Amino acid sequence: MLQTLHDKLSGPVAWGVLILITVAFGGFFGIQQYINGPRNASYVAMVDGHEISQQAFRERYDAYRSQMQRMLRQGFDAAAFDTPERKREVLDRMINEQLLLDANEKLGTAVTATAIRNEIMSYPAFQVDGKFNPDQYRLLLNAQHRTAAQFEDEVRRDLDLRQTAMQLEAAGVVTEADVDRYLRLRDQTRDFRFVTLDKPAIDTKIDDAEIEAYYRAHTDQFQTPERVSIDYVELDAAKLAAPSSVDDATLKKRYDEQKARFVTPEQRLASHILVKVAKNADAAAQKAALEKAERIAKEAKAGKDFAALAKAESDDSGSKAQGGDLGWLEKGVTDPAFESALFALKKGDISDPVRSDEGYHVIQLRDVRPEKVRPFEEVKGELAKKYLDEEREREYTELSGKLTDAVLQDPTSLAAAARNLGLSVQKAGPFTRAGGEGIAANPAVVKAAFSTPVLAEGNASDPIELGPNHIVILRVDQHEKPEAKPLAEVRDEIRRKLTDQALAKAARERAETLYARLDKGETLAGLAAELKLKVQEQKEVGRNAVNLERPLVDAVFALPRPQADKPVVGKAELRNDTYALIELVAVKDGDPSKLDAKTREAARNQLRQSMAEEAVRGYIDSLRKRAKIEIAEDRLQ
Q: What's the order of all strands across the beta sheet hosting 325-329?
């Protein structure tokens, strides 16, 4: 949910660090909650006594998988993606998160209520006309079946994880000399010459004996794909028959029972000015902060424009630019002391300084919305929809329980269970381990179909969740085992493979031989003339050149500087088993003196970010070395 609602992070380094410790994968996603209860058999990892449950891991992995599938679309390869190595990467990120959270707790770092409030208020999804709206906030949380407390806890965890990154970013010192060195390297250009070598003309005749030998040694490469066809029973709450109407008496009773849901609590439109001072600051700092806050309160009460004062004096970066505007607030969102003072004010009042963990607040109450109870007629439609949804869900729960019990009684057949419940047995396939069409495109279905209990033992699968209140149970109907293809069928394929290998080997050996001649002192021009090839010349090529093949540019920038005007030679492996011979002629560093202050500051931030990311990597490595980490590899499913 955090991923969906949040479109920004505080500080550029946060992106890089969250890639290190969370789902990244491209994009970001919300912090899953771990289950830290008693030790049980369902954990996939134990981190200093904290469990990472199978459920939490599955949710994280499925979210990552879905994100990659959306990004890659047709290019997504389920078989290549769902590997033990990929799953271990996701688990390692979850372990890193837990280690950081534990370390922050031991260090006594805490996310303040104000920081959580500012973060939540920054989400565009919770805003109306650019300002935080409590009604919108409550509406979206209800739609996600979340309470404010649950969501605030997720935000707290998210901010907690980002604290390390932001602290290291703030601590990073980048000197002017560092910036100059970086810019000289970043904007460096190189002059070079190169020759692209043609593929050598060799006799690539492959005889039958070679083909047969390769076939015998690599029979496993020439197998028919293993395929299955399945029978399945599907149960989807959205397709179940359910009551289409409900009488007013039932709805009125529900309204009376749930009246608290339809009460919009009192809301107050507030602004504030924060004078920041640490909770454990010495007496002198505390006194100075209080005196400043008292001065600001006095000026505001005397009629000075509160918004102007906030822009000039406030230490709250989240509201300062908006003149201290906090939007409409209700009880339970802010710091208790702040809230107590705010709800004691009258419209138009300005408070005396109020102490919180962050410092002293001067609060202005600009307006009040009294508590409002939505009448029955207004919420009748909402109540009816919820009632009918619950009835459908109740029917689904009852049916799914009966279906599961029936299949457990006879796991070798689906027919009886389906017949007794008025469901139909459907068919899909054949499909391979890479999946197929329709229901077979679902990775969970494919995984179940090829699992040992289903494929080898002939049993029905456990219920497979396809979505909310939507399951399927399957059995394998037919199993086509892989078989070796006859040599006659793959002879031409092997011939092409061996031919390509021979050409690639010849091209590599030729490039190495010619490069050795260059390295011994022959010139590129001389070799090109001998080979009747054209020497291409490039001047002032930068690191990010897009008009040349990337391997060529990388090879050029990996070469040392020429000394005494003597070219440095190299080679590059290009696409399709082709090679290039290179002469690096000159290197010209970037000139930092020609860049404006804005460009230099951007470079400084990039360096600071890189330093912080490297520091976080080191910090996480040190935490892992000291931590007791147990991983249940067999549960990474």
A: 325-329, 267-276, 359-369, 354-356
